Amino acid sequence: MIPGPYCLIKPIRNIKEGNYKYYDEVFYDHPKKEVYSKKSDSIYKVPEGILDMVSTLYYLRSLNFEKMSPGDAFEVITFLEVKFFHSSSGIKALNRLKQNSVR
Length: 103
Hints:
The protein has one helix at residues 53-62, and strands at 12-17, 20-29, 34-37, 42-45, 73-80, 83-90. The protein is mainly beta. It has one domain (4-90). The strands form 2 sheets. Strands 1-2-3-4 form a 4-stranded antiparallel sheet, with no helix packed on it. The N and C termini lie far apart (40 Å).
């Protein structure tokens, strides 16, 4: 997968929940396949097509399921809190659902 228009360059994670606080700015350099985390002050080598969590959602929304067939698969690799998460999914069956309008 090539990141294309779904890539953020600098996502910021700013969490404040009760006593828990987490802040990190992450800089993606897709051509160099590197990610810099400000919190850990480290550079990480990343695979091609790496996405942050928000970009992953946009990427999944962009998939054209109409052109997919049972047995097709796709993989997403995300980087969050200086960890990699690999996720792969496949199409088992395609069913059309009728949508009723809500008034």
